[in-house]
Design brief:
This protein is of the alpha+beta class and 248 residues long. It has five helices and eleven strands.
Length: 248
């Protein structure tokens, strides 16, 4: 939790600094004052339909202008935040395979319409058992196996074809680790799953392991990690925006 809190505070500080650097602070302050004035009009002239209507139209226009002013910093922060989510999810959002519980290994064939000369063979490391033979899901190009962890382990899962071998890391047990749920081939998918090197060109587009999701327990609450991250970053923004004289 301490590391997640530190990341959340860092995200809040980064948001404030980008906002101060890239937004028109004077224009934001002016629009906020105008929005407050419109809200006062709605309360004061509640018995004057024409004035209320004009205040509502103006309030809508001001909100559109406000969103336009916030668009530039939001776009600048979007890509780093998406990448940060992709990096943090494998550590804070996933748990190793639980002992004696089943999970699914899935591969996506690069050429789903083509026939397979032979079904691929799944070779897990010691501590992982293959519970079912390969099942090919027609129309999707996916091949699945049910696996079961029998003891804590960390090793390399191998998918063996007649002409190639595809590998994927796998972890079971209770110790938290940074888990790679999916090893991919395309550069676009690598942005979302950056924990392992890309697959070489061959029969497989990606290999995925169905790790269970986990929550973070703190102050009596079990919440997803991104909720805690949002909480810490939001508190940082609320606490520091006034001392730093940043309008938001």
């Amino acid at each position: 939790m301490i590391s997640l809190a530190a990341i959340g505070i860092g995200v809040g500080l980064a948001f404030l600094l980008v906002l101060r650097k890239l937004s028109n602070q004077d224009a934001i302050r002016k629009i906020r004052r105008q929005i407050q004035a419109c809200l006062y009009e709605l309360r004061l002239f509640v018995d004057e339909p024409s004035l209320v209507w004009r205040a509502q139209v103006r309030l809508l226009a001001l909100n559109v202008r406000y969103l336009a002013l916030m668009l530039r910093p939001a776009l600048v922060l979007a890509v780093p935040m998406l990448f940060l989510f992709a990096v943090l999810e494998p550590f804070y959002g996933k748990a190793p395979l639980a002992i004696s519980e089943d999970s699914i290994v899935t591969i996506k064939l690069a050429h789903p319409a083509g026939p397979l000369v032979a079904a691929p063979i799944l070779q897990p490391p010691e501590g992982i058992e293959v519970a079912t033979p390969a099942v090919r899901m027609q129309g999707t190009g996916q091949v699945c196996w049910r696996i079961r962890a029998v003891k804590a382990t960390s090793g390399m899962l191998r998918v063996v074809f007649p002409t190639e071998i595809v590998t994927k890391t796998i972890v079971s047990g209770s110790n938290p680790e940074s888990l790679s749920t999916k090893r991919v081939r395309s550069m676009w998918q690598l942005f979302w799953h950056p924990m392992e090197s890309p697959l070489p060109k061959g029969n497989v587009d990606w290999v995925e392991i169905g790790y269970p999701s986990r929550t973070i327990h703190w102050i009596g609450l079990d919440l997803p990690w991104y909720v805690w991250l949002l909480l810490f970053s939001s508190l940082t923004v609320i606490v520091l925006m006034r001392p730093l004289r940043i309008a938001f």
